[in-house]
Design brief:
The structure holds two protein chains of two kinds.
Chain A: H1 6-40, H2 57-65, H3 73-98, H4 104-116, H5 119-130, H6 135-142, H7 156-184, H8 188-196, H9 201-229, H10 233-238, H11 248-258, H12 262-290
Chain B: E1 5-14, E2 17-27, E3 32-37, H1 43-51, E4 58-63, E5 66-67, E6 78-81, H2 93-103, H3 108-121, H4 137-149, E7 155-159, H5 167-184, E8 188-192, H6 195-201, E9 204-209, E10 212-217, H7 219-224, H8 229-234, E11 241-250, E12 253-258, E13 261-265, E14 278-284, E15 289-291, E16 297-309, E17 313-320, E18 323-330, E19 340-345, E20 351-353
Helix pairs in contact in B: 2-3, 2-4
The chains are: A mainly alpha, B alpha+beta.
Bound molecules: adenosine-5'-triphosphate and magnesium ion.
Chain lengths: 293, 361
């Protein structure tokens, strides 16, 4: 090859830059992925050197024989509802912040802070906060709501929402930041034009802000859906899955490392992955139709 | 239906920076006011103050006989065309134009009829379903104007609406705006830094200089009777010749001396008293100079500096005692760089300015 020609050099540069990421992708993503598929077709226990090919037995068991394995997915519904509330909150705060509130930098910092905190730390804080006679109860008693304290973590009906609340608190800042960034892209003069034409704050949001950030909100809903299917850190650290707060990822981990059924766990992962993909495709189709272009 | 505009003693500061200083002016109903001035002189700020987008200022603003100083933009009954158009990118042309009416809850049928009428005037009928992103600059411009037209405002505000357009389109749109003004009989305040736009469109020009009114008057006033050297320089292309002279007064005649060249001036070159021997700036428009060696005042032996053919005329710069002398020569003329030329001066429209303050003497 003649390395002096511009095209050849460009090719060399492209190939050169691609080698590293492609290698990493192959070694750490593609290879494990295919191995996971292979495991899901065996009865491997994760330790023994040999495994037997069992075909689709694992899938048959999860989807037909033992549906209880899928039950933790229901919990994702709570987190999904939570993340919709979170998105609404984040948009609300982002709109307010971008309206140039005094000290808005400080508020932005405060709202974003939970996200940069370590998950473990956040969860430990919440565990103590939500404990019987913990921080929340003390706070409520202090402001005279002592009669309304609950068993935040112990009561199976309430604990899910407690965890959702912790989750919202933790990830609100991240959504806020994305929405805030999207808001910065709306030119000020559009708002000014609308003000002159008589649009109220709400109408400005409805007719200018919302259509402009809708694609970003759509993206966030996709992220939220995927996120709520894959919730792990907050419930794992606060309740450890007790009281019916087990999520599908936690169940998968349990199968793999506690019950030593790696084959089955691999099949669960693949099923989760398929659900996530279906959701993404569905939402893309949905948003593309509704999206403003 | 449309009323005038009156601004009294308006000032505006951003922090320590005073952008507008004691502006007072009035426009009759149906008048066309042009705010003219250099970049950064405060034109947009003044317009935004009128619109109410810029609050916290001193002075009062009246639109159509109503004091709107403390009213919200939406209560001032104005329409504004932004320099950047400020179209809503996700709405079609129809929705863009209809937006104000929709906000004000007009009936669907009314909106449709009104938008149709405006689109007709602006020749936008074929583009109503398009998004602004799919339009040319001139079409967007017309959408922005259309958005203002569906309202029946007391006052139209235009902020450099033509500055993004090419020369041909600009001339077309200028005619269009003039026509709209006549058709609607609306009161308009129009910002520009383009003196041609100002001269062609305005009933009245406000020339701003660093936040102050430099001169307020009709286009003829500003061109024929500039109050200051700044005004004289700002209007007219090529720029007025400003020559430093010494004025001799004897009996009732004025004579300007450049070195030992004497230029006899009419008495109205100065409005007031001129002191014998005083230095002054003599302003002579390029079109009052001709290449000729006959006439009451002729100077000779000018070297040729620059010759720019403009088409129907040639812009020529000659040397005059070391300074540039701009003039306009009809037709396409090519003057040799080595030649020397004679110039005949028509002093009837000349002006004397104070070299320090720039005020008309
Ligand atoms: N929000 C603001 N804060 C501080 N200074 C400002 C602000 N807006 C404008 N200025 C200043 O006020 C002065 C006038 O600005 P303005 O936009 O009115 O100028 P302009 O005459 O419209 O200029 P151009 O022809 O370039 O549009 C400028 O010096 C500008 O820097
Ligand atoms: Mg401006």
């Amino acid at each position: 090859m003649d390395f002096s020609s511009a095209t050849a050099q460009r090719r060399l540069v492209i190939v050169g830059f691609l080698i590293v990421p492609l290698t990493l992708l192959a070694v750490f993503s593609l290879y494990p992925f295919f191995q996971l598929i292979w495991f899901s077709l065996t009865d491997w226990n994760g330790l023994s050197p040999d495994k037997t090919f069992v075909g689709l037995d694992n899938y048959h068991r999860i989807l037909i024989e033992d549906r209880a394995l899928l039950r933790p997915l229901i919990n994702s519904g709570y987190y999904f509802i939570g993340s919709l509330m979170q998105l609404a909150l984040a948009t609300y705060f982002a709109v307010i912040l971008s309206r140039g509130l005094p000290a808005s930098n400080m508020f932005r910092m405060i709202l974003f802070l939970p996200f940069v905190l370590n998950s473990v730390a956040v969860s430990i804080i919440f565990r103590d906060f939500l404990q019987l006679d913990g921080g929340l109860d003390a706070l409520m008693t202090l402001v005279g709501l002592g009669d309304y304290t609950r068993q935040w973590v112990q009561d199976p009906d309430i604990v899910k929402w407690s965890l959702v609340f912790a989750s919202i608190w933790r990830y609100l800042g991240f959504m806020l930041l994305i929405t805030y960034g999207a808001l910065q892209a709306v030119p000020v003069d559009q708002y000014e034009a609308a003000r002159i034409e008589g649009a109220s704050e709400w109408q400005q949001f409805r007719f200018i802000t919302f259509p402009t950030i809708a694609p970003i909100l759509g993206l966030q809903i996709i992220l939220a859906t995927v996120g709520s299917l894959e919730v792990f850190d907050v419930p794992f650290l606060i309740t450890g899955g007790a009281n019916g707060t087990k999520t599908f990822i936690m169940a998968t981990l349990e199968e793999a490392f506690e019950f030593r059924r790696v084959g089955l766990a691999a099949a669960m992962s693949i099923i989760l992955l398929s659900i996530v993909m279906v959701v993404i495709v569905l939402q893309r189709l949905l948003f593309q139709r509704g999206a403003v272009t | 239906m449309s009323g005038g505009l009156q601004i009294t003693n308006a000032s505006k500061s951003f922090g320590a920076l005073t952008v507008l200083n004691d502006i007072s002016l009035s426009v009759d109903p149906g008048g066309f006011l042009v705010l003219l001035g250099e970049s950064g002189c405060g034109k947009s700020t003044l317009l935004r103050m009128i619109s109410g987008l810029e609050d916290k200022h001193e002075g009062t603003i009246e639109i159509a006989g109503r004091d709107v100083t403390h009213l919200d933009p939406k209560d001032r009954n104005i329409a504004m065309v932004f320099q950047s158009y400020a179209l809503y990118p996700h709405m079609s042309v129809f929705e863009n134009i209809a937006f104000g009416m929709k906000i004000r809850r007009h009936a669907k049928a009314d909106i449709k009829a009104e938008v149709g009428r405006v689109a007709d005037i602006l020749k936008l009928t074929d583009y109503l379903h398009r998004k602004p992103g799919q339009l040319s600059g001139g079409q967007r411009q017309r959408v922005a104007i259309g958005r203002a037209m569906v309202r029946k405002p007391d006052l139209f505000l235009f902020d450099e609406p033509l500055s993004n357009l090419d020369a041909k389109l600009r001339a077309e749109m200028r005619t269009e705006i003039k026509r709209i003004h006549q058709v609607l009989g609306a009161t308009i305040a129009y910002v520009t830094h383009d003196q041609v736009e100002a001269m062609t469109l305005a009933d009245k020009i406000v020339l701003l200089n660093a936040g102050r009114i430099e001169q307020l008057g009709t286009p003829e006033d500003l061109y024929m009777h500039p109050d200051t050297l700044f005004a004289a320089r700002f209007i007219g292309s090529p720029q007025i010749n400003a020559i430093e002279v010494t004025v001799h007064v004897s009996d009732d005649t004025l004579t300007a001396y450049v070195g030992d060249i004497a230029l006899a001036l009419p008495r109205n070159a100065a409005r007031g008293i001129v002191i014998h021997g005083q230095t002054a700036i003599l302003g002579v428009r390029p079109e009052n100079l001709t290449l000729s060696d006959t006439g009451p005042i002729v100077t000779r032996g000018h070297g040729v500096g620059l010759c720019e053919p403009m088409g129907s005329e040639t812009s020529v710069v000659l040397d005059f005692a070391g300074a540039a002398l701009r003039m306009r020569v009809p037709g396409l003329v090519k003057l040799s760089q080595d030649s020397t030329q004679s110039v005949s001066w028509d002093m009837s429209g000349c002006h004397l300015f104070d070299p320090e303050t720039g005020a008309h003497l």
